[in-house]
Specification:
Layout (H helix, E strand, L loop, with lengths): L1 E6 L4 H16 L7 E6 L14 H8 L4 H17 L15 H12 L3 H13 L8 H10 L4 H9 L4 H14 L6 E4 L3 E4 L4 H23 L4 E3 L2 E3 L1
Helix pairs in contact: 1-3, 1-9, 2-3, 4-5, 6-7
Length: about 230
Amino acid sequence: MKVEIFSDIVCPFCYIGKRRFEEALEQFNNKEKVEKVFRSFQLDPNAPKNPEENIHATLAKKYNMSYDEAKKMNNQVANQAREVGLHFDFDKAIHSNTLDAHRLSHYAFEEGKMYEFIERLMKAHFTDGHNVSDHQVLVTLAEEIGLSRDDSLQVLQDEAYINEVEQDISLAEQYGVQGVPFFVFNRKYAVSGAQATEVFLEVLEKVYEEEKENAVKKETKTEYCDGESCDA
């Protein structure tokens, strides 16, 4: 079973949804048969790499609300994160451009460490207050999970993997993705948003049972030949 997860690093519900999906996997008896792939998505492609305002001010401007209202909204999200064991510190969070982080995640994918890198990026943003568009921050995070610091820096300097990011975003458009997180199971079923753990578990079991049924049908097919043609 293949699960494609469209998400952005600075999306709080992507981190919460990731945890709920992981909780569902822990309850799923066949989790070793699930392949997880993160797909790049940018909520704000025009976000600056070195923002001059904090995340409360950015949110207030985006939704035309007061600073205090934005802070209250962020606190409510932080409370949801706490329910799944995450600590969000929005007072330190820096809402910056995520293109370079996504590019580096594709390098991590080639090294078999994309899932670990996405986790480290999200923690760096929401908990540690790091700017995930800063190249020195990114290569340090990459090094922490076992990637080459020098190779990571080269990827960023060469602007590598831009095509891969754009392909993911194009795929999201084909799926009609309007927001993230967005989970696609075997390119047939989708779960939009940070749904409850039970929802993810239900879909995992449904897809797995369908795969088993399809496997049985394939094994029991009989070929019928008539003249010069055969039908399976």
